[in-house]
Structures are given as structure tokens and as C-alpha cells.
Amino acid sequence: MHPHLKRLSQCADAPHRLIIGLMSGTSLDGLDVALCRLTGCGNQTQCELLAFETLAYSQDEKATILSVFSKAEVSLQQLTLVNAWLGRLHGEMVNSCLAKWQVDAQTVDCIASHGQTIFHCPKHQHGLAQFGHATLQIGDADHLAVTTGITTLSDFRQKHIAVGGEGAPLAIYGDHLLFSDATEHRVLLNLGGIANLTLLPANGALESVLCSDLGPANTMIDAYVRTHLALPYDKDGALARAGSVHQELLAALCNHDFCHRALPKSTGPEVFNLALLAQAQAQTNTTLLSHQDVVSTLTEFSAWLVAEAISELALQRPNLSVYASGGGASNPELVARIIARLDKRIHFTTTSQLGVNPDAKEAILFALLANESLCVPRQGEASVLNVAMGKISFPS
């Protein structure tokens, strides 16, 4: 047996695994790196976060990613180059974390890399009868594995599509494993570039779990302030708080077809972007709005989308508890506007209350997916995955 296969087999049969989860979301803030110790699998999974770091992209790095990000047409040469470059960059970032944490790469069983989504295209979006759902993540895992010397699992979303899903969101599996509760109805809300949620009914099996994208959380706000104000994001919601919501513009944004599609559904910045904003502003004659008013309206749009979905789920569960994560959970203005639209019986907090760093949650979830794919179930354990996700790249 090849040494890499032998080690993979030993890892799968070990009582626990040391896995690094990597997440780079549509907000393009940087790479989240979570070092996790996973014990068991399925409903017996135990996850301990040993170390966590977010490594911000430099302006040049972000610009390179943006050159191929969420565009219907890109240079094939540029896409090819960035795919390999990003894999190496993520590998170098992992190496810097391991050095900082004083962790020997040889002790790490594998890396679980989400990669960078550059185009998400479910069928309801492209409308082409001959094609199904599609999504594309870059950051080649072979380059990542060779750079770090660590076996890497990647490209999780392709298998989800291959077996009939839309490729997003994948949080359903990790949320079910980590956060299901016997007595409390829970919503795990991720406020990243795109807002998504997982509904975990009390004492519910995986089949009862609902997981869906909702629409933009930060992506339109970030794109606007990046383009017009040369800022990476609206820090603490200060711009939104200084502005006023323009109700006609808000109504035009809320009228988008995706906002009224039934859950579950998936989307991305391919739909919710500055072109959509420009169209809505043209319709409502609001092209001369101040930057603060535009950001305030975009923030209200995100809050409305989230609150509408949660309120619908709470009709059958009035004492629902919502646990937020992602960059938007640190935006007090966005959070306040969501809460203002919710029934007072709904409890809103962050995943910190469940013992999980809100910033690390998404990276942890991909470590969990890798663990489910690698773990050999023992007595009393059963994988929650119907099919193993993740392509395997060996370091040599």
C-alpha cells in the first residue's frame, strides 16, 4: 500500500483526528484557519477547537481574487493562474499558522479546504434546460497539499451537486452534529457575504433539518463601500447608522424574485451585486442618494431578508432561539435591525453561547465534513452523510 494511503487508512481508524478547516467566504475578508481535534463521527462526534486565526488578504491579494470573482465572463488564462496561485497562498497561510501555534505539520491528519467560490449557478439562476445546478471553487488542493505537506480534502460542493443538491449551503451536516438539542428549537444563522440559516427542530433527525441561503448579508454592503468609499466594509455599521432607509429603494430590492422563493434555496453575489442595486436605483430615481443612505438601505434589506425567514420559521415555534455567526454578527447595526423585526419571544444571540467562536464556525464545519468522510464508524456511531464529500490530494 502507498504510504499516503496507509496513513489515510490509519487516520480513518484512529480514535481521533487532527484536522485543519479552511474557509474563505464571499466577503473576501481573508482565510479562516481552524485547528480541530475530532473524536468519533456521526451523532457521537466531539469537536475541540485547539487554535483559530483569520489571515486577512492584502489589497493586492484581494484584487487578484476579485479579477475572477463572480463574473459571467473572465479570462481563462487569469482563472487558470489564480486557481494555482490561491492554492499555494492558502498553503503558505496554513504554514504560518502552524509556525505561530508551534504545531508540527506531520501531526496534522488532513486539511479540509473549502476553497474560494468564484461562481455559484443553481438552475433557477441560469434557466438553461440542458444544464443542472453548478458551482465553482478555486484554490487548487494539490498545490495546497504540496505547499503544506499535508493531505488535503477539497471541492466538497461538487459532490453535493452530483447527488442532487445545489452545492450550498453545506452547513446542514455540521450544524446538526454540533448544535442539535433535545428540547430547544434552534436556528443557526450565518451572516457572511450571503446570509444562510439552518433550522434544527428540537430532538429532530437530520431529515427534519432545513438549511437554506436567504440572500445578501454583507456582500452588497461590502461591494458598495469598497467601490465608492475605498473601505473593506462598514465598520460597526457606522455608515448605515448615519444614513436613512429609502423606502422605495428598499421595496425595489425586496421585490427581487429570489427573495420570494420558498426555502430551501441557494444564491450568491452573482445575483446580489452592484448591478442589481444600480437597476433598483434607476427604477426608483435614487441614483443621487448619499452613500450613507444607500448603505443604510442595503443594511435594512439584509435585515429584512433574515427576519422574514426567521419569522416564518417561528410561526410553528414561537420560542425559537437564533445563534448567529459570521462577520455580520459583529455588525451591531445589522444585528439590531434584525432583532427589531423579530417577535420578542425569539431569543437572538451568537454561537459563543454554545461554546463556538462565531468567526471560526464555518471553518470548523468543513473540518467536520472531512471527518465524516474519513471516519470509520464504531459501535453506536453512524455518519450523517449519505455520500462522502471531498476530493483527496496527497502532498507528494
From TrEMBL:
<keyword id="KW-0418">Kinase</keyword>
<dbReference type="GO" id="GO:0016301">
    <property type="term" value="F:kinase activity"/>
</dbReference>
<dbReference type="Pfam" id="PF03702">
    <property type="entry name" value="AnmK"/>
</dbReference>
<protein>
    <submittedName>
        <fullName>Anhydro-N-acetylmuramic acid kinase</fullName>
    </submittedName>
</protein>
<dbReference type="InterPro" id="IPR043129">
    <property type="entry name" value="ATPase_NBD"/>
</dbReference>
<keyword id="KW-0808">Transferase</keyword>
<dbReference type="InterPro" id="IPR005338">
    <property type="entry name" value="Anhydro_N_Ac-Mur_kinase"/>
</dbReference>
